[in-house]
Structure formats: structure tokens, C-alpha cells
Amino acid sequence: MALKLPFLANPMDTSILEPIEIADSWAQRFNNALGTVDGDLAQLLINHVAPWWSDRLALTWDIRTFNSVQEIRDLLQYAASCGRLSTVSLKSATLVPTATDNLIYVQATYKFETKEAINIAIVKLVPDARGNWKAWTIVTKLEDLKLHKEDRSRLLMPDVRPDKTVDALVIGGGQSGLQAAAALRTVGLSCLVVEQHERIGDHWRQHYDFLKLHVSKWYAQFAYHHWPTETPFFPTRDNVADFLEDYAKSTHLNVLTSTTVREAKYNSTGYWDVTLRGPNATSRSLWVNHLVLATGINGLRPLIPSIQGKESFHGMSMHSSVYKNGKAWARKRAVVIGCGSSGHDIAHDLHNYGASVTMIQRNPTMVTHEVLNIPMLRKLYNETLPVEVADDLQESTPIPVARLLASIPPKVLNKDVIAVNEGLVKAGFQLKTSDRSRIIFERFGGHYLNSGTSNLIVDGKIRIKSGIPIKSFTPSGLEFEDGTEMPADLIVFATGFDIHSMRNTAIELIGSEEGRSLKKVWGLDDEGNVRGAYRNSGHPNLWYFGGDFQGARYFSKILALQILAAKLGVLNRYQGGK
């Protein structure tokens, strides 16, 4: 069935709708069908467009998405037979408008408990042609195992430093690794974090001075421990670095800095024999049940395009990963290759220091705008709504459905945004249609949330050269395929990182033989879920973990519950629908 939105033939009078009654009625029908021998739960789903059911461990012990009635029927029969499905009780419901009057839905949150688990379900209910409210999308999520509930008080006391064995070794002490470690602790697992830098947060301190988050501190909160009150709305590079260090201390995580994994060998007992290299070339051995690779989705390996003649260039060239600031480049000619977030930031910084800046755009770029994004995100991420509730709501839409919803044109266009976009095109900047799912989950780059640099381009203060490939370096700058030349004193390659390096890092760590079963990490699989990360990596005792602040926060507990389930011997994944 083609992917479509469940549009109404005519707009509906929403003033007469009672979301609680609608959601409670659906729950009663669901529970009645569940309790009947011949009850068909699939009849509670819409059928004029594809229904969706995404599961985060509750029914499948996996991260899976199904989008046909038959796939969902098979899933529910399996879950019921395994005791993973039970009657639901309504927690909340609200009417959600969209960008068009011909699509509305009631979003309902339910709770359901089985003998072993506590779960939630978030359901989007829409009316069919007869006015019957049916489920369009359902997301089920495991909250806790009853005999092993999350206990956040464990983070208030120092963890026991492992001597010889540990449940999980987290490799990487950034925002992903630390939140994963904290989640592991809350469910009672022992954990050790190793970080190659001298201090937690040093990876951030090494970035360029101009760096700040382009999302609010409310969106970028950490699990279990929030930003200090005085943190600015957009945290700076140093805010993030210092908070990472404070987070590790406040949650009493076991962290070894200036430490790397020299070798990890998997043995027949189901443990990794790990050798750590510490400060001053010291060595230490551990038996580790699970390895969690949290070295960053966007990679450890900078990508620099191969351009001939570099040795002839008399100026300076560098990758964005080593750029610090534009202090030395006042009244000099600077070229920034790449128009993603880092490219825009660095061009802005060089302009602030008085450099003459040109950006080289190799491919169209998706530009979004703070004036639109921040108010939208603030509906969920703010001072009042608990971040865990906000995350559940944010993750309540399967990625393919979110892509469809985002394609609906807004009812009212922002005139300032239109003016900036038109100005960018006039300046020669190539805009790409907004598709957050592809940019974030497939490319992990190629986008910019405008915080001022786009305006500088529109005003002609930063120049753009787009669509013409670079042919070679010259002694004084760059030559392009169209025969034009561009003089430069500084060339910065803001060309990103190898997003496939996480798998390569894992293979280097555990060896090609053990690592041959490892899946590719990141990008979307055939079901529309993130490939490899947070779930089965291809090796039962190795996990990829990473993503942005929100993703790492949300999936940290999902990762911890899977590792806990593996230890308990109950990680039995659903194999149907593949």
C-alpha cells in the first residue's frame, strides 16, 4: 500500500470532539477484542491508508516498525501468545491539529502491564469514512521490567569500581557514552567508561571557539541530570564540555580518562577479554560482558576531498576539526569548503574577525530557521513538561510518517523566512527541500539551522560559489572546472566526517574475524528505523550507541534494558515481518 496521509474528505468541526471519550472508547474496543477468542485487533486499525505499528522492546524485544494490516496482525498474535500484550488503560489524550484542516488526530497515551513488564502505547487515532475512530499509528515502548525497575537513587552514590569483571564497558565519554552508562547503572548493571582524552569534555573543548548548540538547552537536556539554571538558552562549546565533566561526577560514573582499548577478544564464555591502555603506557585487563561503542556517529575520521596540487598552495589549509578561530585571518582571504553547520559557523566566525569570506557549496543544502524551529520544539521541550514525557511524544511518530507530515505546506508562511530563502537563491546558494529524516538519519550532515550566517550571505557579506567542482589547488588559491580561479590565504575544509567509521572502529578493535557479522551503522533500514544503533549490531555482545542529544537521551534506557535482558536470558527478539 502506498504511503499516504489519512486526509478527510471535508474539514471536521473539532469543537464538538471529546478526545478523552474518543481515546477511552478505542481502548474499550481494544480490550474487548483482546479478551475474545476470535477478536481481531487489526479491525481497530485504519485500512484506507497504511497503518503503522512501531515497537521499542515491549512486544518484540527489538526496535521494529510494521506498516501493513497483515504484518501487524502477525505481530499481535505473536505478542499475545508470548504474554507481551495486555489490556490498556488511558493516561491522557489530546486533539492534535496539523498544517491542514483535512487532517486531525487524537493522540492518546495508554499504559499496559504484563506479568514481567510495564509498558506504554502512544496511539494516533483518526476517523474513517464512517466517522469511526481507528488507530493510524501506534508506538509501544517497554518502560520497566517489574523485578528490575529503574532506580535513579543508584546515581546518588559512588559505583563500585570493577576489579576483574564488568557488565558493560562504554568506549567514549561524550554525551552519548555518559548517558548510556548512567542508564545502565539505574537498572543495576555495573559499568565502566573509558575516555581517550585527559578530561571528560575535552573533545568539545577542542572544537572551534564560535561553536554553540543550535538547539535549546531544554531540547539538549541530559537524562537524570539537567543543565545548571544559569546555562544560556543555546549552550556554548564550553558549557557543554564543563557539563559533561560535571555529569560524570554528579551521577558517580566509573570513568577512566586518558585510556583506550588496546584489544578486545571474545571468548567462548560470552565475555570479552579486554586490555586497556592507560596513562604512561600502563596496562590493565578486564572481563567484559558487553561492549558499548559510543565513539560518535559522525565519526573519528575527518573527510577531506582529494584535490590535486595541494603541495603547491602557498597559503594554509585545514579541516574544520582543527580550526579554532579567525583571529589570525583579519583582512585576509578565506575560503570555506562545505555548507553544513560547521561551514556556516566557521564562515561567520571568520567574517566577525574581519576576513573576506567565500563559501564553496558542493551540493544543495537544507536550511531551516531558528524563528520556526525553536518555537516548534519548545512546545515539547520547555521548563514545565518532564523531558521523558516530551521524548515519548517526540518519538511517537514513525520516521516515514514524520516525513509525510513534514511535507504538508504550512497554513501561514513566515515572511522573514521567505525573504531569507529568496535572498539565498539570489546570492547563488542552492537550497534543498527540507527532509529532516534523510539529513539526520541518512546523511548526518548537509543542513544548517540558520542562526545568522544565512543573513550574512543574503546581505553579500559572505560570498557563495556553488555548483562548480574544484579542479585543483594553485599557488595562490583554487582553480575550478569552469576555468575560474579564487585567491585564498586560508582554506578550511568543512567537509564532515566518515559516518561509517564506527563499524570500522569496531572491527579494528575486535578483529576482522569477530567483526565480520557487524552491520552497517546509521542510515535507515527497510522498516524506517535507524540501522545498527541502539539495537542488534550483528554481534550479541557489542552495541553501537550515538546520535544527537535527544536521541542519546531517549535511547539510553532502551539500550540498558536490552543489555539487562541479555544478562537475564530473556532477550528473545521477534523474527516475523522480515
UniProtKB/TrEMBL annotation:
<keyword id="KW-0560">Oxidoreductase</keyword>
<dbReference type="GO" id="GO:0050660">
    <property type="term" value="F:flavin adenine dinucleotide binding"/>
</dbReference>
<dbReference type="Pfam" id="PF13738">
    <property type="entry name" value="Pyr_redox_3"/>
</dbReference>
<dbReference type="GO" id="GO:0004497">
    <property type="term" value="F:monooxygenase activity"/>
</dbReference>
<dbReference type="InterPro" id="IPR036188">
    <property type="entry name" value="FAD/NAD-bd_sf"/>
</dbReference>
<protein>
    <submittedName>
        <fullName>FAD/NAD(P)-binding domain-containing protein</fullName>
    </submittedName>
</protein>
<dbReference type="InterPro" id="IPR050982">
    <property type="entry name" value="Auxin_biosynth/cation_transpt"/>
</dbReference>
